[in-house]
Amino acid sequence: MTGRVPPTTIAVGSDYDVVIGSGVLGGVADLLGPDVARVLVVHPPTLPELTARVAAGLEARGVVVHLAEVPDAEAAKTATVVAELWGQLGRAGFTRTDAVVGVGGGTVTDLAGFVAASWLRGVRVVQVPTTLLGMVDAAVGGKTGINTAEGKNLVGAFHPPAGVLCDVDVLETLPQADLAAGLAEVVKCGFIADPVILELVESAVAADPAVARSAANPHLRELIERAVRVKAEVVAADLKESSLREILNYGHTFGHAIEQVERYTWRHGEAISVGMVYVAELARLAGHLTGPDGDALVARHRSVLESLGLPTRYSAGRWDELLTAMRRDKKSRGSTLRFVVLDGLAQPARLVGPDDVLLQAAYGLVSRAGQGRAH
Ligand SMILES: NC(=O)c1ccc[n+]([C@@H]2O[C@H](COP(=O)([O-])OP(=O)(O)OC[C@H]3O[C@@H](n4cnc5c(N)ncnc54)[C@H](O)[C@@H]3O)[C@@H](O)[C@H]2O)c1
Ligand SMILES: O=C(O)C(=O)C[C@@H](O)[C@H](O)[C@H](O)COP(=O)(O)O
Ligand SMILES: [Zn+2]
Q1: How far apart are CA 301 and CA 296, in angstroms?
Q2: Structural domains for the chain
Q3: Are 166 and 140 contacting, i.e. CB atoms less than 8 angstroms apart?
């Protein structure tokens, strides 16, 4: 895929680097610092070989490795799992010079980051994302967290990693649906900040739609780098989401609600795909997207996402549950819902407290009786 291309390093402000390339996994030990004696490697059950490679690399540098296998996917992001990992760290005597390494998709990097943020009030974490979504989004930016029964990512901390290593070779084994889910967050970066991303996706789809949705997408490396650059720039300016960072949450108010209502049986990127179409429709109804250009931009959301095999519709008849979940969105202020919308391509804005009639009308435009993930 990207075999001979040298690694690219993208700095997140002056805090840490995201390294993207082929065979970059060996860099984990260098990011942990000279004092580290113990490392907890948090990993899913699906990646035994990759985990063993990371562990062997650390052991070769004299580090004592403790492996923590956690449940796959969203089941990892629970208080129960966090408490188990705290127990493991305590029994092994982890001190402030020791560290956590997250090897896995976004669920693992969110969990590992939160465990590192909370242990002894903060130890070093190095993130080794193994999904496209983890590389372009979850592992970058220091947002860590877990879910509670009441909603998505309701408990967490801002805890930037010491570094992020994105080894693009590992994407070869990623299931196609997970690759496409990662592309949803890449496309998000295209709509909020970097339209070249959309052009690259559209040209790959025009050449071969099946290839465009796979790790063989000829633009994949550039897409990863562009999405990471968008995120790095935003996060460097506003780590704690006082304002600008909210744009990375485009499509997430409705998307997170779908995830919760569906009890996390939808992939995050799939839910965010529908969420982006929802908020594009809402922006049009609320007068943020107007005229033929506005119509075309809403249509482009559907065409790009559907061309990648991503869902753009959600079942009808779930409005009350969705609204309850949306009210717990972190962008809400009191009982006022706030959405990231577009005033145009790469022109993010905020929609504050839209009328319930508009909210529900936008739902009508993305829902169809009896349809779940179908387009
Ligand atoms: N912190 C943030 O800023 C941020 C940003 C975006 C998303 N997220 C979170 O990320 C999570 C979604 O992450 P995800 O899409 O990576 O899902 P995931 O972590 O569930 O991984 C998807 C699936 O791929 C498998 N997998 C991982 N790497 C693989 C590989 N190389 N080969 C084969 N299989 C592999 C996993 O075992 C899992 O079954 C959500 O919880 C979301 O909330 C966080
Ligand atoms: O980094 C951010 O900020 C984001 O919002 C990126 C999102 O893609 C990501 O899903 C994030 O975890 C959502 O955060 P939340 O604050 O809405 O839980
Ligand atoms: Zn997301």
Answers
A1: 9
A2: 8-173 (3.40.50.1970), 176-204+242-368 (1.20.1090.10)
A3: no
pTM over 0.80: yes
Residue in this structure with the two tokens 């580090």, named with its chain if needed: 63
Helix axes 291-307, 195-207, angle to 10 degrees: 50
pLDDT, residue 5, reads: 86
| Cβ–Cβ < 8 Å for 356, 324 | no
Q: Pick the residue whose CA is nearest to atom 8 on ligand 1.
A: 138
Under a CB-based contact definition with an 8 Å cutoff, are residues 12 and 20 in contact? no
- Tokens 């108010």 map to which residue? 253
pLDDT per residue as tens digits for the range 192-217:
999 999 999 999 999 999 999 999 99
**Kind plus residue range of the DSSP H or E element containing 253:** helix 252-261
Question: Which contiguous run of DSSP H or E holds residue 260?
Answer: helix 252-261
The residues, ordered by sequence, that sit 6+ positions from 239 with a Cβ below 8 Å of its Cβ are: 141, 142, 158, 160, 245
d(CA 308, CA 319): 27
Predicted ipTM beyond 0.85 = yes
User: If pLDDT is split at 50, 70 and 90, which confidence band does 370 have?
Assistant: very low
Active site residues: 121, 143, 185, 231, 241, 245, 249, 252, 256, 268
Gap from CA of 137 to ligand 1 centroid (Å): 10
The answer for 350, left when phi > 0, alpha when psi is -120 to 50, beta otherwise, is: beta
pLDDT tens for each residue of 243-291:
999 999 999 999 999 999 999 999 999 999 999 999 999 999 999 999 9
